[in-house]
Amino acid sequence: LRARYLIACERIPEAMALIKSCINHPDISKDLYFHQALFTCLYMSPLEDQLFQEVLTDCKSGIEIICNTEKEGKTTLALQLCESFLVPQLQNGDMYCIWDLIFIWSKLQLKSNPSKQVFVDQCYQLLRIATNVRVIFPFMKVIKDEVGEDGLQICVEICGCALQLDLREDPNMKSLIYKAIAHFLPNDLEILRICALSIFFLERTLESYYTVEHLYKCADEEYNECASSVQNRVRFELLPILKKGLFFDPEFWNFLMIKQNCLALLGDKA
């Protein structure tokens, strides 16, 4: 109660002294309120820059603090707290609680500023500092959910950028990106075929071969820009990126040749 009173009166140095004493106590420190109150004091003080250094190591506790802060109507502080947990996770490549943090961050960011363009720009800024390419998936999820139709094209562009990274040590991740592109563009037969072949080259499984076979048995279709989910520019930029993962250009091979080469790659499984 005393800590709440001091914060309400904006007697921040006294409040911080009391709260830090409570945090240092072995029993009282278990109450997350005091950790939350410390962040509130830092936010209200000239020492606001210390906020990132004062973060708790446990993200689950941090998420609870963020949610409690938001419930009190302190959206700006909750957003800054969320970023103070999220940014180190992105920089360290740590996926612990990352889906929850990105989801909460997206809601707070849009509540703080409803502009969809600002939201996308902020997503790109956070993606630039990420060291683990797997974070593209939670970011694509929130972009697709929050931005609407334009979000799908942004997700495709993010996949294209990710494929240009050096993923030779992580073929599973590369395969997931191809699968994501196929999911985003289910009506583009050419893209689907290239993604299926690329996935087969990475996985060399019967299941992935059957997908290739099914797609090549479908009747050829002319690409219809008007019916596409993405702009022609994005598709034009994506095609050469996708083809880099192929052992051959399927445009110059009929299905019989593709089948023979795929079966050769399957080896004994064929």
From TrEMBL:
GO cellular component: nucleus
Database matches in InterPro entries: GH-ZnFinger_Regulators, TPR_Rlf/292/654
Cellular location(s): Nucleus
An example molecular function term from Gene Ontology annotations: DNA binding
Protein keywords: DNA-binding, Metal-binding, Nucleus, Phosphoprotein, Repeat, Transcription, Transcription regulation, Zinc, Zinc-finger
Residue ranges annotated for the Zinc finger protein Rlf/292/654 TPR repeats domain, each copy included: 57-269
KW Ubl conjugation (keyword) present: no
PANTHER family attached to this UniProt entry: ZINC FINGER PROTEIN 654 (PTHR15507:SF16), ZINC FINGER PROTEIN RLF (PTHR15507)
Family from the record: Belongs to the krueppel C2H2-type zinc-finger protein family.
Name of the protein: Zinc finger protein 292
Species of the source: Mesitornis unicolor (brown roatelo)
